[in-house]
Design brief:
2 strands; globular; mainly alpha; two-stranded antiparallel ribbon; 8 helices; 235 residues
Length: 235
């Protein structure tokens, strides 16, 4: 994060607590069942691990372990809330659509800022890191964020034929933005997940094979073209 003060992270945690409290109250009031998912299996132990270390005294730096334990706990809270609140397909689709446009906007801003004001956050705050990608100081975290957003654009490019070019272009821009960030692991992972998504679409016959092949070719060519514009050499 680009904010050095603790208020930014504290604000997120307080917001999650408030939303969790409202959800708990609504669950009791309307007797809503709690939804579980297999993805909780790795997340719950990760959220508990730091607290177990603290309880057993098995840490070389107690304060850092405590901060990490809080981070993982609130990540679990956010996941559980999303699992409960976005069960209705309409709400889930609206949220994912908002996330897609938010991620795309950030990718455009970050790429332009990367070449017009290196090291700056939104052209204002000096991060001291040459390849900072607004608002992410660490380029690998920026790439990890876009790895969660690119599949949303690819799925819509395949399933919404009327706007296939729009969503395909958005995916290509975000892929090229990862290249611009110089995150080698990020570029590799976003390429792999794109191939996996097209492979799963072919296996499940989401769209006709001819349409799938055309979409895959278009996204690949656009991504290569945009990546050539931002430059492969630093990566």
């Amino acid at each position: 994060m680009s904010a050095p003060s603790p208020w930014a992270l504290a604000g997120v945690r307080i917001g999650l607590c408030l939303v969790a409290g409202l959800w708990l109250a609504a669950m009791v009031r309307y007797r809503e069942p709690v939804r579980f998912d297999l993805l909780l299996a790795p997340l719950v132990p990760a959220a508990l691990w730091g607290w177990i270390q603290l309880a057993l005294g098995e840490t070389v730096y107690r304060w850092a372990t405590g901060q990490a334990a809080l981070d993982w706990f609130f990540r679990l809270v956010a996941f559980v809330l999303a699992l409960q609140l976005f069960r209705p397909a309409v709400l889930r689709r609206l949220w994912l659509g908002g996330l897609l446009w938010f991620g795309f906007t950030i990718s455009v801003l970050a790429t332009v800022q990367r070449f017009t004001a290196p090291g700056k956050i939104f052209w204002v705050f000096d991060s001291g890191i040459a390849n900072a990608m607004s608002p992410f100081v660490y380029y690998n975290q920026y790439a990890a964020f876009l790895e969660t957003v690119v599949p949303l654009a690819l799925v819509r490019a395949l399933t919404e034929r009327g706007r296939a070019w729009l969503y395909g272009t958005m995916a290509a821009v975000m892929i090229a933005s990862v290249v611009a960030s110089q995150s080698r692991a990020g570029a590799f992972l976003v390429a792999v997940e794109t191939l996996v998504l097209f492979g799963l679409s072919a296996r499940r016959a989401v769209v006709p094979k001819r349409t799938l092949a055309g979409s895959a070719a278009a996204v690949t060519l656009l991504a290569l073209a945009f990546a050539a514009v931002v430059g492969w050499t630093p990566l």
